[in-house]
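Q: What residues go here?
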């Protein structure tokens, strides 16, 4: 297996070249360590107290603009995710479908309605298995006929007179899911929050702690008004939300201020919290931690937090204002094996191989392709795999992932301890689990699988996978 001069693969080499450890190397001034506030110029930046990584990656596409991908001749549309409830197909092989037409009706928790993203004919039904082992059927749609939405002036619907139930119904009907994470239907998340009955805040998570979040960044810039209005709609839909907090990485202060200015159009209190950009700042635990500190220092009592990302907000906006399901996804296509990395706006269902082809193809045969980020990613099993609602990045590596390399012994360098944001001792946990071949010991449950420890381990030990009880876990750094 090809290896670098030190025996490390290219993802790890890139990460190790660029990673700087811990807050001390980045924080110009600590106002008070307990408060986790960093002062940068005249900005107060809220950050978590320990561990984490700051890194860059030259193989990430530039964040200046998005490139609109060609419309796909064939789209692959999985009918359901195979994870919880069921999705009942509403069309058969040979039938015509329209752009945005409902073709799968969700039933049960965890599943969202499925829509055709291009007009065409259902060519085949194929068994589909995703890279997490979930299986379901997928429809292969061959594009033909005219587009009902693309290039046309769409009817705009007002939501001013709608109550939370109307809005939740529309968000569910048009198949909006949490676009940056779990893929859980957004209406389910919103309704669970409303049923919990506590007043709270919507947190729009614009935290770019990983350069592979380039697609969300470009979306925020290009669809700022949609993100903000989608946030206002979500506040109404959840019933109990009293304010919006834009949690924005401090380097993107101008983006946060533009969001705040745009939010002034809506009769909802809005705030800007500048947060750190050290990975994993966007994790729920780290984000809540800094927002509670922000709450203490800057006033607004936040209550319960409903945390959603900008792509979800834009999808809520499309569903409510235009009765349009998610048809496109901003996705970063890059990695050392890709000729021209770029952020693309592509139809959901387009095959990943076509995205790579539109980026000029590969400079050499890639050894490993994955989606997500090099720190937390999932292998792509074949290039026919479709772009999904939750896929924000796909990347191709020239060398194999570190998990495929032989492990070496722990050299006791302690780097894993330095970077763990939870304050765990990954080395000890790993050794304890391996020695007794047992269930993870106490403390391991605190691990949220950020992958920081694994990214810095010079012995390439699968630390976070083992600690979380998943030794074959997909980690790429
Ligand atoms: S994966 Fe777990 S043990 Fe490793 S750094 Fe993250 S929280 Fe700590
Ligand atoms: S980083 Fe790896 S080699 Fe260093 S102490 Fe932790 S487990 Fe051992």
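A:
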């Amino acid at each position: 297996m090809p290896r670098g001069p030190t025996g490390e693969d290219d993802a790890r080499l890139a990460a190790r070249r660029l990673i700087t450890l811990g807050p001390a190397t980045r924080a110009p001034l600590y106002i008070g360590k307990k408060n986790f506030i960093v002062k940068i110029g005249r900005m107060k930046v809220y950050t978590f107290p320990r561990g984490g990584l700051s890194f860059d990656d030259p193989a990430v596409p530039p964040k200046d603009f998005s490139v609109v991908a060609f419309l796909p001749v064939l789209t692959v549309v999985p009918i359901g995710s195979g994870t919880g409830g069921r999705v009942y197909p509403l069309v058969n092989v040979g039938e015509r479908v329209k752009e945005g037409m409902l073709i799968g009706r969700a039933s049960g928790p965890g599943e969202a309605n499925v829509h055709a993203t291009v007009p065409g004919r259902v060519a085949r039904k194929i068994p589909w298995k995703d890279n997490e082992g979930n299986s379901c059927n997928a429809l292969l749609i061959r594009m033909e006929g005219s587009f009902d939405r693309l290039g046309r002036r769409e009817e705009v619907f007002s939501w001013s007179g709608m109550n939370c139930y109307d809005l939740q119904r529309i968000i569910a009907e048009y198949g909006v899911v949490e676009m940056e994470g779990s893929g859980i239907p957004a209406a389910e998340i919103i309704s669970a929050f409303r049923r919990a009955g506590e007043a709270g805040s919507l947190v729009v998570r614009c935290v770019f702690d990983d350069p592979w979040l380039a697609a969300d960044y470009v979306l925020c810039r290009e669809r700022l008004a949609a993100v903000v209005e989608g946030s206002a709609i979500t506040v109404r839909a959840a019933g109990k939300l009293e304010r919006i907090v834009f949690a924005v990485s401090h380097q993107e202060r101008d983006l946060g201020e533009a969001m705040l200015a745009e939010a002034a159009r809506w009769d909802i209190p809005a705030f800007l919290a500048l947060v750190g950009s050290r990975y994993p700042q966007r994790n729920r635990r780290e984000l809540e931690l800094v927002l509670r500190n922000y709450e203490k220092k800057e006033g607004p009592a936040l209550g319960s937090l409903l945390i959603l990302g900008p792509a979800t907000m834009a999808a809520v906006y499309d569903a409510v204002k235009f009765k349009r399901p998610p048809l496109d996804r901003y996705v970063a296509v890059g990695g050392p094996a890709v000729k021209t990395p770029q952020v693309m706006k592509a139809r959901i269902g387009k095959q990943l191989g076509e995205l790579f082809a539109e980026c000029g193809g590969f400079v050499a045969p890639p050894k490993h392709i994955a989606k997500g980020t090099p720190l937390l990613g999932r292998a792509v099993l074949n290039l026919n795999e479709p772009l999904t609602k939750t896929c924000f990045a796909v990347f191709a590596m020239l060398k194999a992932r570190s998990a495929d390399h032989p492990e070496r012994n722990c050299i006791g360098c302690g780097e894993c301890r330095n970077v763990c944001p939870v304050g765990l001792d990954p080395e000890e946990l790993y050794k304890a689990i391996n020695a007794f071949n047992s269930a993870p010991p106490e403390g391991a449950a605190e691990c949220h699988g950020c992958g920081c420890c694994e990214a810095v381990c010079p012995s390439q030990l699968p630390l976070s996978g083992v600690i979380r009880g998943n030794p074959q876990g997909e980690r790429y750094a």
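A: Context that may help when evaluating the design: The chain has 13 helices and 22 strands. Residues 1-34, 472-477 have pLDDT under 50 and may be disordered.
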